[in-house]
Every structure is written in C-alpha cells, then in structure tokens.
Amino acid sequence: MDSILFIIAAVAAIGCGLNLVLQSHPISSALSLIGVMSSLALLYLLLGAEFIAMAQMIVYGGAVMVLFIFVIMLLNAGAEKRSDKSLFARIFGFPLLAVFVVPLSFLIKTTFSAQVSDVSFGSWVGGTAEAVGKQLFTKFLLPFEVISVLILIAILGAVVLAQKEID
Amino acid sequence: MDHIPLSAYLILSAILFGLGVAGFIFRKSVITVFMSIELMLNAVNLSFVTFSYENKNIDGHIYSFFVMVVAAAEAAVGLAIILTIFKNRGTLQIDEVDSMKL
Amino acid sequence: MNLWLIPLCPLIGCLLNGLLGKRLPKQVINILAVGSVAASFGLVLAFLWQNYPLNTPVSEHNFTWIQSGWLNIGFDLTIDRLTAVMLLVVTGVGLLIHLYSIGYMEHEDGYARFFASLNLFMFFMLILVLAANLLVVFVGWEGVGLCSYLLIGYYVKEKFAGDAANKAFIVNRIGDFGFSLGIFLLVIHARTLDFVGIAAAVKDLPVENSMGWISVATLLLFVGACGKSAQIPLYVWLPDAMAGPTPVSALIHAATMVTAGIYMVARVAFLYGHAPIIMHIVALVGLLTAVFAATIGLAQNDIKKVFAYSTVSQLGYMFLGLGLGAYSAGIFHLMTHAFFKALLFLGAGSVIHGLSGEQDLRHMGGLRRAMPITCVTLLIASLAISGVPGFSGFFSKDAILAAAYEREPWMFWTGAATAGLTAFYVFRAFFLAFLGKYRGHHHPHESPFVMTFPLMVLAAFAAGGGFLNVPHWLAPMFPVVENEAQLPMIISAAFGIAGILLAFVVYVAQPSLSDSLKSAAGPIYTLLINKYYVDELYNAAIVKPLTLVSRAVLWRGVDEGLIDTGLVNGFGQLVQGIGSVLRRWQSGSIRNYATWILAGSLLLIFVLGLANGGAR
Predict the structure, then answer these.
(1) What is residue A12's predicted lDDT score, i.e. its pLDDT?
(2) Angle ∠(C429,C433,C438) on CA atoms, nearest 5
(3) Which end of chain B is least crowded, N or C, by CB within 10 Å?
(4) Which residues in chain A touch residue C589, judged by CB atoms under 8 angstroms apart?
(5) C429-470: per-residue pLDDT in tens?
(6) Which chains touch A (3 or more CB pairs under 8 A)?
(7) Contacts of A158 (CB under 8 A, 6+ apart)
(8) Is residue C405 part of a domain?
(9) Domain tally for chain C?
(10) The complex's ipTM?
(11) Contact (CB<8Å) A119/B4
C-alpha cells in the first residue's frame, strides 16, 4: 500500500515540477506548484510527519501560494516572451544540471542502500504535534523567538516596499 | 511490493531540487523564478523529514518547520520587491533587470 | 681651551651672512665675514700663546659619532705642531684674503653669498686641519670640495663657470672615491681611524717591500690627494677653476684647499713610512706633474691660467718632497707657497680689477706706472717663487731639492730645471704685464687700500717667510737630516736666476725674439698652448662614452624602456587587461549568476565527496 501511495505522490510531484518548469504562463506554474506541495504533504504523511504535513498544506498551500497568485493577477503577468539573452545559462545549464542530479542520485543510492532503511507507514509515530511542540518550546526556544522577530521584520519590509508613494 | 527504500525519498528530493534549479536558470519571468525557489525549498524540506525518519529524531521536523517559516517570510518580502521592480521598470523579465553589470 | 670654537666662528659668519645677507648693509656683511675669520685667527694665536711650545698634542673628544661593534669614531679635534703650522697659514692667509675680497667684490651681485661661501669654506678647512681621525678629515675634505664648487660657480649667469664648477667637483669625486677606499682598508686592518690609533697599529709591522695592505691603502689615499691637490691625472679641474673670482683662486686654489692633500699625506706619514714603493710613486707623480704643468704654463696667455699651472707645478714639488721622505720640507714649501702664490693671485686680481676685467697678458703692459704697489708686491712674489736666494721660496724649494740631491740625483736635476722653467714663465707674466708699453684699451688704476694692504702683508711674508724655520719646528715629528752640501743650493739658485734673465731677454730686451721662438717651436708650441690636449683626451675617452652609455643604455633603455614602459606601465596594462576580461563575468544577468552558483556548488560537492573518501 505504501509503495503505491509513494509512487503516485512521487510521479505527481515530478510531473507538477516539470510542468512548473515547462509552462509559459505563470498561473499554470503556480497551480503546478500547488500540486507539488500537495504531493509532498502526502509524502510527509507517509513518513510519519503529521504536523509537518499539516503545516505544509496550511502555510504553503494556503498562504504562500495564494500570495503568489494574488501577485500574478495584480501584475497581470502574461505568458513569457522569447528572449535571447543569457546564452551561457542556456548552453551550460542543462549539462550542469545533469551532472548535478545524476551523480547525486547514484551517490545517494550507494550510500543509503547498504542500510536496511525502508520506509513503512506507521513504523514511526513520533512526528506528532505534541512532540514537535515539546521540542520547539524547550530545545529550540531561542530560534523560535528569533523566527517570530524575523516574520515581524518581513511584514514591515513588505509593507514598506509595497506601499504607494506619498506624492 | 516491498517497502520503499529510504534512498528513493532522497532521490526524489534531489530530482525536485534539480527541477527547481532548472526553473531558476531557464525561466524568464521573475515570478516563475521565485516559484522555482519555493520548489527548491520544498525539496529540501522533504530531505529533512526523511532524515528525521531515519534517525527517529524529531529535530528534523523542527528544521523543516523553520525552513517553512522562513520561506513564507521570504515569499512575502520577495513578492513586495517584485512589485517594486514592476512599478519601476515595467517589466517582469529578469534579463532586463541587469543594470548592475560593469 | 675649546678647540671647536676655532671652526665655529666662520660657521657663524657663514650662517648669518647666508641667511640674512640680503637684508644686511654691506658694512655689516664685511664685519661679520672678516670678523669671524679674525676671531678664528685670534683664537689660534691665543691657543699657541698658551700652549707653546706644544711638545705634546692637545686633543679634545667632542662626541661619539659612530659606534658600531668594535668601530668607534668620535668627532675629535687635535692640535699638534703640524696642525699649528696649517692653522696659522689657513687663518692668517684666509684673513688677508677676506679683507682683500671686500675691495675686489665690491661691485658684484650676490655679495653676501660670496662671503657666506667663503666663510663656509674656512669652517670646513679648519675642520679638516683640526681633525684627529681620518673620517673627520674626510668631512672637511668633502666640505671644501662643496665650497669650491659653490665659489667656482659663483658667477651663476655664466655657463663656463658652472661647467668649471661641475668639472672641479666631479674630478674631485674621483679622488674621493680612492680616499674612501683607503679609509675602508684602514678600518678593516687597523680597526680604527684615529691617527694615534693607526700609528700604534702599524708601529710594529715590517716595512712592506711588496704591495701589502698598507701600500694599497696609502696608494688609495694618495689617489684622493691627487684629486684634491691637482696632480696627474686629476689636475684638469684646477686651470678651469680660474672661472671663479680671483680671491677664490687665491684662497682655495693656491693657499689652502689644494694643500689639503699634502697635509693629509704628511699626517699619515707613519703609514707612508711603511710603504716605500708608494712613496716612490708619490715622488714620481709629483715630479712629473711639476715638469708637465711648468711646460704648459710657458705658453698660456691668461694671467690666471699661468698662475694656475704654476700652482699645479708647485704642488708637484711638495709631493716630491713628501715622496722623498722630506715631510717637513714639503710642509715648509706649502707654507711659503701659500704666501707667494696667494700674493701672485691677489696681485693678478688687483691687475684685473684695475683693468676692469682684462685677463689676457697680450693686452697688458707698462702697468708699473699705473699700479706701483701691485707691481712691487708681485715682483717680490715672483722672486720668491723663482727661488732667488733670500726670499722664502728659495729656502723651501732648496730643502726639497737638497733631499732629492741626497736620494735621487736625477730627480734633483729635473727639479732644478723645472725651477728654471718656473722662473721663466712667472717672469714672462710679470714682464708682459708690468713692463713695456700698455697694449690695452682700459684705464688702469691702482687698487684701493683694502686690497693693497693684504698684498703688502703677504709680500712681507713672501720675502721673509723663509726665515721661519719650519723644518726645525716640525723636527720632533719629522726628523730632519741636516745636510751641509752647498752645491744643490747653488745649482737651483743658478737655474732660477737663469730663468729670470732668459725671460728678460725674450720679453723685454728683444721682444721680437718671443715671436720667432714661437714660430720656431711650431708644433711644440701648439701642443703647449692646448695643454697637451689632455682635456680633449679625457673628453673623448671617458666623458663621451660615459654620457653615451648613460643616455642610450641607462636612460632610454633601462629607465624609459624597462622600468617605465615595461614595469610601471606594463603593470597597469596588465591589471587593465585582466580587469577587462574579468569584467564580463559581472553581466548583471541573474541567470548567469545562478548558473555559476550551480557550477560552484557542484565543485564543492565533488571536492567534499572526494575528500571524505568517496562513497562512504
């Protein structure tokens, strides 16, 4: 059962990712990204990370992507036009990527195949909100507080940047 | 079928990351580039959670949580910047925002 | 008593005149300049009065100048009998010449500058004479060279004066190079530069019959002396130095500076005593120079040039005396030469002043009526230099020639013949200037008292100075061998008088004889009047190649080509080149940057992966 779910989610994720890269209109890319995030949420559930899966859907899918779509619509971003700049990226990008991903995959495979590390749904139930909360408020208290300050700053920055000019 | 090996998750994470980089390098619209960045962050999140599962340690989840928070904040500010760029230059092509060249 | 006060007085005069001179009235400048030298002279007299008979030298250590390992050199001054003679000559004759300059330089621009330089010269010369070690001598040596340059080039608007000053300084420098090397050798071997210390170091060493270190050192020191005292081959600057004002020629190039070389050799006589080969060389060079310069002086038409070559010749005599071991004779001749040569130059200056600048003998004549005092004093000087018995020159020259007679008879005969030549050319100048009819266009007049007074004082010394028995006074330092032979005295006197008579015949009794002699001598005459073409030879052999190399190789090639274009500009261009290549990296395109980041991160991953031993 897990394997089928995994394959579905993986294929969906990769498919949506390809779609994001290959589509020309930003809205299509945004929707594909939502698809990726949903697939990832499913994968998190398979890995026993309930809290993270929920957070992923709520924060990413519900807030960040909505923001993206708002901005796309606000700016009336159209389909991309062809542009001939940046020859370097076009020539070297793909080979570099291939060099990046393929050996990395092989590396991962050889590294982690020695161990008996199979994922089965339900073999670890430690990813509850309670567990996360416990760690968050004891061991990771300082980063937590700092993160909240970060968000505050981000809010301020966004407000300042996006406001209308005072004539 | 057997259980899924751990390396599969990691390879998936690598592939998603590669796709994110591809989007970053090959796309011309600023918003799409931004979305590719989000894709990369998600791939890394998957990686964290996988390792957390492997070590049966909740800390990976916490890191992933923080990454999410930061990504959200960054998205907010980044989109505000995109708005400003659009206001000032009227274009959303990153190739045309190259006034920092020598 | 403080010895450093003696050089200090002229230094103060120099500073005051030099810094404030433009604003001071002439009287004040005169008082400062002459007064400071008079103060020095007074201090010297006071010292001698206090410390007569100066059986032991009086020294003072002022401060430690160099202290480096075992080398300890202080700024020490000392007065012994030799120094006393030099001090009296320098300050006494110097005082008279300062006095004379008041009259001579009256109408010149830069009046204060002249006296400041002259006082500075006195300062350095006194330091040179008072020095107790070779390094302080060298300080004075260089200083008088500098002042010589300043004073020869006094007429700053004339190019030939500047050239002459350059020539003097550069040729001197060559000599100074030898001097420096000699000093270095002495430092290495004797480990000290104090005269007392060096004497102690070499006292027990054997006399060197081959070229040991003492010989090399003394030879190098002699090279320095050749430069300063105008011996072959470094004499060429002295005739050209006549471009300076006549009092300068009198003071520096007759009485004091050129005698520095002789003084220095006499000072380190104990070193030369250990190097008989070098002493022989010294005597030879001196004799050769004496003859050489005398022959050139025969044909010169400029009165100052005649006396300049005469100075070179007489310096040769002094070195002859030193080289033969008759140190006191050499110093004696130095003193008498100071008297009569200064007198000759001052007299010439008086003539030139009276003729408003005329220096050519062919445009003079019959001046004895217009300038009686000058005529008489110059006559006395000429008699002295010719070695006429009774006058000072006779005694000193005789002392040298007697020593030659004892040791190297052929040198004696050559020296005596040269004495005849000396008499001839000096009296040629005298007769051409003062007898006969006036051949010029000016209105000759006698010089003012401020100029004739020094002439008279010097004439008195030139006449009677021989009776100051300097060799006796210097006997404790330089043992005198009393010789009773009368023959050398008679022969040298005879040569001298013969020279005078010959000059009389040629220039006064039968004037046409001079022209027929000139044409008869023909090529020899041309050779003489062109100074044996030595200057041209030096120019072609040394100066031209050197300037050529400097200009073509070092300036254009190395400096402009290699350093300017190659290194400096090249470096700039290199940086620019690299910059223009690297500039393209910053394209402003984000996608480029992203690709580079990807490439970089790949590199990192691979390096880290390999570093950790590949796959785990």
Answers:
(1) 94
(2) 150
(3) N
(4) 85-86, 89
(5) 888 888 877 877 777 888 888 888 888 888 888 888 888 877
(6) B, C
(7) B76, B77, B79, B80
(8) yes
(9) 3
(10) 0.89
(11) yes
